[in-house]
Amino acid sequence: MNTAPGSRLKASRTFLMMLGLLVTAYGLWLAVFWPGVLGEDSVAILLEVQDPAAFRSGKTVLWYYFVRLFYQGTARVEAPVAMALLVCAIMLARMLAWYWENRLYKTMAFALLAICLAPHMVYFMGTLYPDGLFAIAVASLLFELWLAVTRRSITGASLATIALALPFAVFVRPNGLVFLIPALLAAVWVDRNSRRWLLLVIGAWCVVILIGTRWHKTSTQETMYPLAVFETAGFLQTRAMNDLWKQFPHMNDPWVLAEPKVSQRTIEALTRNRPLTPLQAYRDPAYWDMLVFHPDGPQLGSLSPEDKATVVREFLTHNLWHNLPDFVASRVNVFLAAALAQGGFPALAYATNVLPRVHSQSTYRRFHWETAEHSLQRIHAWSYAWRWLLWTPWLGLALLAWGLVHGIRARHAPLLLISIPMALQLGAIFVFSIAGEYRYLLPFFTLPLVLLPALSTTTPLAHTDNQRPTI
User: Fold this and answer.
1) Which residue in 24, 29, 332, 365 is deepest, having the highest Cβ count within 10 Å?
2) pLDDT of residue 466
3) Does residue 281 share a domain with residue 194?
């Protein structure tokens, strides 16, 4: 790319034009649905900000401080929501401007209409959840790292965008830590000056997060115990075929008698202070929430550390291997429930349920734009009705497979820098997810923002094919 002053000025104007477009669109959306879309996770983080000693939301320390920074002094929920929308707009405008400057007009039009202004993307960016911000930041970070490795250098605009995107891509969700790896690997392929600045940005944010964890102790969700207890509850579901052999007590041949599908130690740990019936009654095939949070349910989150360790150990050594078909079927079910957006979502008006439960000064629907609200609600309802087609991340997953195959065959470092971390992310979501939440797959919906230009740009910028970074 030409870096002459005139070219930089033109690129800046394009960026400001795209930013103005997105800020206007997102600002109007927020004005209509003031103070934003709020859900139960919004209640949790607001309660933690209001009284961190008494409440833990289970969110990361970065998300806690982000909400605290913009909410605590104002007591207005719209402040962190508006800031999240602004940060997303900046990162998206940067990519849209690059498409335009590099004559990728079709890519820009698709990205703008199908992703940046998609009703559900604006919805997720405008909730007080970190998922929309995380998905945009992941795309932005990988896009800038792809540019850096392709060019072998980092421009000032790229460095500024990396500095903005990196904390939200790496630290706003626990599973974002995987994206620290490509950020560090990118330093291998860029020039010395760029490497110094990139490592400075990475190191600075790591220090900030480390200090934040010392100042505020938070508790993010465990990984193995939720998976073990969710799947074990499924293994314990009664099945008609399991009772068939009880009708034939004379059939005591060794090949008929099989080991129990769930070990006795597991049963003892789960039933030490509660009967087994609620566990079976409150088990949902796509969500673990009822097993933990329902007041009348088994409340498996309250098991002692010893019993939790027993459940995990027995799951890994016995229960999983005696129920492998059930486990694989469960993993597919949870993943498809998320991919087809079959889970629940906070209603656009759910803020009326949230605001009375927190010490907020926010006014619900402050501007009273009822006509605009009804129009946008109809658009959202239409989008929701077609979510199995419009929301699903199949395009991102297909491009990911293409990028992996092409990157491995050509030993193309920039493509692999994008594809491998996202493949690891996909594998982890498939194996460990215990809730069919669509928002967990949002990074794959935004992945085309990176892979479309990466796959369509056959000649790396400022390099011939035999000069491109390889591994």
Assistant:
1) 29
2) 40
3) no
| pLDDT reported for residue 11 | 85
Q: Are residues 83 and 199 in the same domain?
A: yes
110 and 215 together in one domain: yes
One domain for residues 102 and 164: yes
Tokens of 392: 């699903």
Q: What is the pLDDT of residues 174-224, one digit of tens each?
A: 999 999 999 999 999 999 999 999 999 999 999 999 999 999 887 777 789
In a domain, 332, yes or no: no
Residue 419 belongs to a domain: no
Give the residue with greater pLDDT, 345 vs 329. Answer: 329
Burial class (CB in 10 A: 0-12, 13-18, 19+), 101: middle
Residue 272 has a CB neighbour count (10 Å cut-off) of: 12
Name the E strands within 320-434. Answer: none
Q: What angle do CA 317, 321, 323 make, to 5 degrees?
A: 130
Task: From 432, 440, 59, 437, select the one nearest 229 (Cα to Cα).
Answer: 432
Q: Give Cβ neighbours of residue 373 (< 8 Å, ≥ 6 apart).
A: 32, 33, 365
Do 192 and 278 belong together in one domain? Answer: no
Residues 280, 291: contact at Cβ < 8 Å?
no
SS3 435: strand
Alpha-carbon distance of 137 to 66, in angstroms, equals 14
Q: Are residues 242 and 208 in the same domain?
A: no
Q: How far apart are CA 171 and CA 179, in angstroms?
A: 9
Rounded-to-integer distance, Cα 289 and Cα 307, Å: 19
The confidence score (pLDDT) of residue 262 equals: 87
Both 143 and 237 in a single domain? Answer: no
Q: Exposed/middle/buried for 77, CB within 10 Å: 0-12, 13-18, 19+?
A: buried
Q: What is the domain range of residue 460?
A: 5-220+346-398+446-467
pLDDT of residue 249: 52
Query: Quick check: is 335 in a domain?
Result: no
Q: What is the distance between the alpha carbons of residues 279 and 266, in angstroms, rounded to a whole number? A: 13
Select from 322, 338, 370 the last residue of a domain: 322
Answer yes or no: are the C-beta atoms of 346 and 127 closer than 8 Å: yes
Could you tell me if 458 and 353 lie in one domain? yes
Provide long-range contacts, Cβ within 8 A and 24+ apart, for 95-99. 95/139, 95/140, 95/143, 95/449, 96/18, 96/22, 97/11, 97/14, 97/15, 97/17, 97/18, 98/143, 98/147, 98/453, 99/453
